[in-house]
Design brief:
With 140 residues, this protein is α+β, with helices and mostly antiparallel strands. It has helices at residues 74-94, 102-116, 129-139, and strands at 7-12, 16-21, 61-62, 70-71. It has a two-stranded antiparallel sheet. Strand 1 and strand 2 form a beta hairpin. This is [histone H3]-lysine(4) N-trimethyltransferase.
Length: 140
């Protein structure tokens, strides 16, 4: 177990969900951090930034299969593979015509992650992605 939480989630009647500190905090103090649930490189940056760590650099290596995903090195490629494998084959099939928006790609990644990680992830410590979905459904 990590250190005790400094913040908690609460429900404010009529206003919705909120987060609040459980102790005095210093100005600028970091109270919570977590990895992104999932992410995707924006279309315009393809080839300029690594598809895995998003570092901007020259001479990124292409995915050997689709040649449309770019990485710093083998470690970055391996790190992105659980997500990129979902897209790599269609990138190969459609080649330069494969051009969905980052919103479409991100949605696909969220759905794939929900399927492969039905349990709560570290990113969902205070709010699950499922809860976002139920809220959206309630509004619609
Ligand atoms: Zn990288
Ligand atoms: Zn690929």
């Amino acid at each position: 177990m990590g250190p005790p939480d400094s913040i908690e989630r609460f429900l404010s009647p009529g206003k919705g969900r909120g987060m609040r500190a459980l102790r005095d905090v210093k100005l600028g103090e970091l109270l919570f951090t977590c990895p992104a649930y999932t992410c995707v490189l924006t279309v315009n940056e393809r080839g300029n930034q690594c598809d895995s760590c998003f570092s901007r650099k020259e001479g990124l290596s292409k995915c050997g299969k689709c040649k449309q995903a770019f990485y710093c090195d083998v470690d970055c490629q391996k790190g992105d593979w659980p997500m990129h494998k979902l897209e790599c084959s269609s990138m190969c099939t459609y080649g330069q015509n494969w051009n969905p928006s980052e919103t479409v790609r991100l949605t696909a990644r969220i759905l794939a992650k929900q399927k492969s990680h039905p349990e709560r992830t570290p990113s969902e410590r205070y709010l699950t992605v499922q809860e976002f979905e139920s809220r959206k459904t309630a509004v619609l």
